[in-house]
Amino acid sequence: MKRISVVFLLLVSAIALPASALTATGTLAVSGTLAESVQIFITSGTLTLGGTAQDATVSAGTIQKFGGSLTGGFSQTGSTASNFTIAGNFNAEVDYANGASPTYHLTAALNSAAPAGTVWTLGTIATLSTTAQDLQTAGTYGAPSNYTLSIQIANTSTGSIARTISLVATTN
Predict the structure, then answer these.
(1) Is 63 within 8 Å of 115 (Cβ atoms)?
(2) How many CB atoms lie under 10 A from the CB of residue 46?
(3) Residue 123 CB: number of other CB atoms within 10 A?
(4) Shortest CA distance to 88 belongs to which of 157, 151, 32?
(5) Of 167, 35, 137, which is closest to residue 96 (Cα–Cα)?
(6) N- or C-end of the chain: fewer Cβ atoms within 10 A?
(7) Residues 134-156: pLDDT tens digits?
(8) Is residue 16, in this structure, part of any structural domain at all?
(9) What's the CA gap between 72 and 46, in Å, rounded?
């Protein structure tokens, strides 16, 4: 009986002993280089914009000095014996990350010459042309700026006034 007890005790002891845990380790090295980035968002003011935040579109519809109704948030803002003006406004916001630029420089230009008999004004730019001109020289990142677009149209103008305005933000 003593032998059976000893064998039984050894067997129970062997089963009750915990197995030693095995471990393995590994590492993951992460690398990358941060690069500064800048983006511009064009959003509605009075103008009803389509397209994307970077490539907005708006249509004034059928433009008439007398009667008619403009679309897209444009309104007729002035009229003389020889011309009339339509206008609307939009917001442009420049955002910036991962760099040390304190402000931005924003320019504007028409993609092609203004149609005959029209004068385009944007913000403080009295005559918008195909040459880039300053809208902001030290703009604040993350703060939308409102710009009024006015188009003076001579009574003798005909056809389409379709043009694209390029806005270019550069970090200072």
Answers:
(1) no
(2) 15
(3) 20
(4) 151
(5) 35
(6) N
(7) 999 999 999 999 999 999 999 99
(8) no
(9) 8
CATH value at residue 92: 2.60.40
Evaluate whether residue 17 is within a structural domain: no
- 20 found inside a domain: no
Which domain does 111 fall in, by range? 35-171
Which of the 8 DSSP states describes residue 17?
Answer: S
pLDDT tens-digit profile of 97-126? 999 999 999 999 999 999 999 999 999 999
CA-nearest of 129, 147, 163 to 88 is 147
Assessment of whether the complete model's pTM goes beyond 0.85: no
Instruction: Say if CB 160 and CB 151 are below 8 A apart.
Output: no
Number of structural domains found in the chain: 1
Instruction: Compute, in degrees rounded to 10, the torsion defined by CA atoms 126, 127, 129, 132.
Output: -20
Q: How far is CA 129 from CA 95, 107, 122, in A?
A: 26, 11, 10
